User: What shape does this take?
Amino acid sequence: MKNNRKIFILPAVLILLVIAGFLSESLYNGTYEYRLRTGRFNRMIKAREKVMYDCIEGIKEEYKTGGRADKSSIYRISRLAQRNNITLLAYVNDTLDYWSDNGLDVPETWDERTFAENPGYISNGWFLVRQVSEDSLRIAGLIRLMTDYGIENDILRNGFLKVYRLPAGTQFSVPEASPYKISDSQGNYLFSLVFPRVKSKTPFIILPLLVWLALLIFIIYTTLYIARILATRGRNIQAVLFCFFVFSVTYLVFLLSGKPSTVYQTGLFSPYRFTAGKMIPSEGHLIILGLLLSALFLVFRRYLPVKVPAKDRLFKSQIILFFLLLPASVMILLWHNLFSYLILNSSINFETYRILKLSFYSIAGFTAMGLLFLAPFFYLVRISEAYAYLSFKSVTPAIMLSSFPIFAGMLTGLPLMLPAVLLYLALCAGLFYAARGKSITFNIIVFFSVIMGLYSVALITILSENRITENIKTQSVAYSTEVDPQAEYLLLDMWPGLSSDSLLRKMMDVGFFETDDLERISNYLYGAYFNGYWENYTINIVLCNQYDPLRIGSGNEVYEDCFSFFEGRIEKLGHPVTGTGFYLIDNQKGRPNYLGTLYFETTKKITTALFIELYRDINVMHVGYSELLTDRRLKGYSWNEEYSMAKYINGEIVFRTGEFSFHRTDEGYVDPASDYHIIKTNGYKLVVYRNGNVSVVIGRPALSAIDIVISFAYLFAFIFLFSGFVHFIIRRPSFENLRNLNFRQKLQVSFIGVLLFSFIIVGILVAALITRQYQDRHYETVREKLNSVFIELDNNISAEKEIEYGWKNSSWSSMNELLIRISNIFNTDINLYSPEGNLISTSRPEIYYRNLSGRRMDNTALANLSGSILSEYYQKEKIGTLEYISAYMPIYNTENKLLAYLNLPYFRLQNQLAREISNVIVTVINFTLLLIVIAMSLAVIISNRLTLPLRMLSRGLASVELGKKSEHLEYSGTDEIGELVRQYNRMVDELDESARKLANSEREYAWREMARQVAHEIKNPLTPMKLNVQQLLKSWKDNVPGFEKKLERFCMNQIEYINNLSSIAGEFSSFAKMPGNNPTEVDLQEQLKINLELFKNSANISFRCSWPHGKKILIFADRDHLNSVFSNLIQNAIQAIPPGQEGLIKIGIELKDDKVIVSVADNGTGIPEELRMKMFTPNFTTKSSGTGLGLSIAKRYVEMANGRIWFESETGKGSIFYIEYPLLRAI
Assistant: This one.
């Protein structure tokens, strides 16, 4: 009835989940999310408006009370404004007097146009603008809505601020372009939000994803449930075929329909990271395929019958086993190739020792391969259980021969077949060993976690190394030529702005170029365009008119037309850089050389030209922009900072980068016989490529043994947890079982728990302390650099009366030149601010040209240094999401007058600090995990050793049995366990003595009772025999007619009585002897069938059997005893049915944990209540015939097999007898 109800409920739930999936998807794709986000954005804007007005009023009050605002007194207002992304500006007499932050560049004097638009674009973003004027004081409040830096990367994010929680790509429109309107606190319309047409991934996608995931799990559950119902009805093949059909249709519908659309929007189902053809187009498909295949083979493992030859047909068993193992070998081969393909042809990192490089997709990949591996695993479990009766020696030939497909793969050149062969052999060996019941679940999980961990670490390590090496080879080819891919990408990105630059066009609108023109234009180009990565190049800028002569020799005698010279070079050696006006100059010198041309027509109709030559002639390459200045689109072209590289031309090094110390010549690297080869030296792995007279050497840190050990630790931990989770899902143990742990398990859990907690705490503390040390060292480095830069700068400018914008002296043509030189010496960025806080000069002008920061000093630092006795000041500042240390120090001249404020914004090496701290944290995590794995292993070993005497004592106590000789335990220790052992040995001796006395007493009582019972049984037929003899004698004396017939009848009766007495004597003799117990491995089901055959023709009796089909249920018992027990119970059931009644006897077998229960039920008269206590008493019977020993003997036989027997009875309805045996295994 329960199953019938469930069959109706499951389709209803399935339909509800499908409807819920489409509804949640419709809700996600609809406008509800946008309306919700719009409402929240409106509330946030109104709240920030209130904060802004409060801050403005606070500033007004400060100016009123102080006449001129004291910057230190409004620090609290500044911090409040910054927390709410509000910028406050105060102008006194139209001159900027106060700014709450320097995140944007604002005019020095009040400009009505700057603050007129609302919302308005200022410097690097869009703001809501509010103005308040009072007398000579003007205050502007700016609520930042969006950022627009011109570049975007992990640090700089364009678009609405993250705090507003609007989807990426959201824009706004002042004209009403959508129903999502934004208004101010007065209800005035401001703008409308324009959400992206293609809905981006937001947290709202979680609901439909969860519903679709629940639907998939429910489909799998329902399919498995129906398969179980089919199997209980004996339709095992149909159950497997049904699952195969449902799972195939499910996967194909998902694959071909492209639905649900929300699922395909996730990165997991993007082919960008991984694809293996049309059938497995993404990593997400791989996971779903793994789920369905593992569920299918779980059904196979449970229900598919495997026919096993007779046990005496060894050779036939081995042949069949060989053919059954072949599919497993092929599945392992396919799984291995798929895993290899995933590692080699995806953009996912699987090297677990690089823990911070792992991502969600790495875990997803491991999970997918784990699920797929369950298919051959479940298949092998089924086969190993079916053939568990074979010895390990017998199955070894079949296992070895069945690995032929994997060996064949090795011969055909498939990658890394040896680990696959070893994995297959170890898997088969472990499963066949476990199938013989010689290991517990925990040990099995640990064993398979170890072999899978070893296999995985070998495969991932080798293939990842090969993939990286191939990538480096590709890079080495690119760097061996004169092409610079990163430079060409920058030129392509730069060209639209450079070619349409109106300011540059204006500067080029001259009739004749002066020296100052060249300097001004060069400085402008360096600052606006050619900075950062272009520090790796020598930049030569030439300005000329169409017919200007150009000196190209060392003397003054050679002149040539300027345009013709450069155009001739381009025509002869140039290759255009697509999409730009730059050309690659192929001068065969092995160094990148680019030439760019821009032509301008002046107002006087004269053509002027700007020629920009870029030539990389440095020996040490500055690799790329800092992360702050690198656009996201350029990330794929950037250099991996873990690598080192050297380039040689004609054997001489021309440039290098990285930490590895390269030779000055390539003699130690180049192999004349090969273009490519690999060298391992000084902890580095070098890939050497030779291309003519050019050699490129790219090195990276070599993989160490500790890296491999740590990788194994991570993989072991993951596989162990994954295996435990799968076992938990399949077995579904109750929490009651989890609470009822034995002492050894409790000890292990305690050890592991304490060690796990201790190592985690220690790891966290060590990581925190080391991080703190790195940060302190970082601060100390900044302090040292600040003092060094101060000394160097003070030597150059201390004699000045004041420092203004455009400063220069006899030694330096500009302040920028001086700062850049000092910056290169001390490897730090430098800013110089005026006493009023305005930027005078900087070594990193691109920060300000790109409007990444304002040109004013941080207001908090200015407040702390101006008018105070502080000689230096440190604080943390931010650009985008990059937080860095900023150090300030005032510079005074020889007259003790404040010249400027020196500022070191230490973001150039901020990434280095982050990498160092990350490396430390990774190292701590790696070693903590390694120690945890080692500690857990030691905890298991130590707990086993500690509990070994207890287990010995437990076995000894369990072996104590009345009537059997118990052996003493040997233990040499003098601890508490030793005392227990001694008490046990003493108890055993006393128990043996007591058992001997009890046996004698019981023997005497038994024989007395037996004599009484025998006398009673013999006395019963003697009385009628005596009467019959007396009657016969009287008839003889009385010559009664027909005496011969009476004599004949008398003899027959006497013979019957004598036979009865003989039977009684024989039965009691059997009871006294009790034949010996010879237990063997017996198929319980088969023996029950044999006994049923003896009674199947009983009149008016029908039998109904219920037991698992397609399974062999094996127990350890005496075969003859089993036949006697079953025969006695079935015969008793038949005899308990009254004459004339249609008899029904139900026989069932039920598997319950590690037990098997046989039930024999009849519909007879039942057993009266007063007689039930005597049913297993010898010589007691409720029948008119028999000795009454059958059930007593049956009870003895069952107990000999470590079983038990009991019954349930209801008067008038019948009885049920139960027999419980320990289950050896079911296959």
